[in-house]
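Sample entry follows:

:::
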Amino acid sequence: MGSQPVLESEPENDVCLVVEGTYPYVAGGVSSWTHDIITSLPHLKFHLLAILPPNPDTKLRYEVPENVTGITQVELQKIPKLYQGRKVKVPDDFFDRLFKPLIAFQLTGSLASLDAIIRIIAPHRPLLNQAVLLDSKPAWKLMLRMYNELIPNGPFLDFFWTWRFLLGNLFTLLLSPLPKARLYHPVSTGYAGLYSARARLETCRPVMLTEHGIYTNERRIEIAMADWLYERPSDTLSIDDTVRDIKSLWIGAFKTYSVACYEGCEKIITLFEGNQKFQIADGANPEKMSAIPNGIDWQTFAAIERNEDPDRPPTIALIGRVVPIKDIKSFLRSCALIKEVVGNVRVWIMGPTDEDQDYFDECQDLVQYLALEDTVEFTGRVKLVEYLGDVDVMVLTSISEGQPLVILEAGAAGIPSVSTDVGACSEMLLGRSDEDPPLGPAGAISPVANPVVVAEEVVKLLTNRGWFQRCQKAIAERIRTYYDKEDLKKAYGGLYEELKAMDDVPRPELDAQFRGDG
């Protein structure tokens, strides 16, 4: 399966939601948020542009709402083959003209450099495919020039595969179908942001971005942890040593996608104010920025009946995917410490286990090593409303988050949380600085990767009834006041109507060095 073409007769959509590796094929907080936005605004027509990994599992995890007019699937590393005729040749100077804007885009991410690339590619789209763009002799010569410009004297083989991956995905996104819409709404930067920057340039329609977590921060974490990426050994202490290693090329590429997306957006939204300093550091214009917290249907969760059976074991839950960024291993180490103090305790890890099989296997091995086989259960994906009545404390040990809905859903059901200090978790559990009147703590915040502090705070909630009840009351009141789903619906409905009504926004003026390239 590759990119699925959109029929020419398809009616124009109100909103093209651009999602990467999530809805409707992967369960999780971002997917649930996307589903809620679509279903809460049934009068609008949405089209889904789903950017997927190679050879994806496209089993639907959600029932697609009726106001979704279609789904365009774009599979990374699969450059569309648009021309089916005899072998053809692009102009002799095609790759020479691409060199300068490709280098500029890798180094700066400016919308002007992306515009220059699109202007060069656009007239020849029907002739372009992997054989031309990656496998041809002119493409090889382009790669050598980029190597000498970006990482001279670096590991050539590693650069070669990095170049094929990064350029392959860039060309995939620039050649894939572009559904018609009144506005484009990426739900992250990264590839979704890059695709939306292209939409802004080619359609002149407005783009609004919602960032849940900061995409570049999450990629930095993953790349820093990747032991297969070569990092140039340092033979000098000079701060002027600017030779770029392979890891910096990867990080730089994802940052450029954010820069282009930010520059092309009319609105840049995040879920909490703490994220905005990262957006500004990555190039976002503060004048375009705003914060809209996630909301939930808190009445549904508040109606869940609590199991007050004194004979049931104290129950701790972590709700999330079993993947490294959720740091399930730190949670398991906390559970071993909690069990030493509390004794008979039950632990549920509620979320998909099939996204990273190796990591899930390692977590199961750790359960055995810590002698938690009779304590910990990996439930897989479940209906939370069927479980939350039996949960006493919710724990989140993530390395990175945006504004996890599970804290709100658990809190509305009367469950305090202990969370790492990531994303909006501190605001949700301790309150924003402008909370008036202050409602008090609704749980506790722990440093990242600190099982001891997590265990201490969970034990406090399980053993101090007065503290538990104060936290329980605070989180319920905070959610009713600040995190109502109806407020989210009104905010996005208003933004959609404002941007839909905009006239076409002009293309940016090209920087002087790119004039004449399109």
Summary: Residues 212 and 402 are 4 Å apart (CA to CA). Residues 13-233+249-294+505-514 form a domain with the Rossmann fold fold (CATH 3.40.50). DSSP finds 18 helices and 13 strands in the chain. The chain has two domains: 13-233+249-294+505-514, 298-482.
